Task: structure prediction
Amino acid sequence: MLELIRESFKAKSLSRDLLRIYLGVALMLKGIYFIVHVKDIFSMISYHFPFIDFVFAHFIVLAHIGGGVCLILGFFTRIGSLLNIPVLVSAIFFVQQRNGVFNTGSEFELVVMVLVLLIYFVWNGSGILSVDTYVHRSHEEREKAERIQREENRH
Result:
């Protein structure tokens, strides 16, 4: 793992990894906020989807917390980001539209920025300091060792 940290510094990708971790923490905290304030999320959702608000509310909480943890660890980063994209698109079209896009206290810019960052991590993946990279490299090393062992056994 220390090797990955050194490589991240050399490749100058530490900022991307820190941004991914920060976004994951923010999503996870927003999911916890929605658990604590479950009535607020039900009222926002039931306004547009009165009969399936229970399912949507639980999907939003699960996507935020699960996707946040995935982003923090860099484990299945693309999937965690992809699960949150419909939530943010819905927030733009349903919640922010009702609150007003250019009103004082509107979170429209923040929601759009988080959506753009999620699309960025779907496109680019997790970065060097991630469980995905660690697992991928250890798998490659194991395959390389097995290939060398097979070649030695043939001779």
In short: The radius of gyration is 20 Å. The helical segments are 2-11, 14-36, 38-48, 53-73, 77-99, 108-124, 131-154.
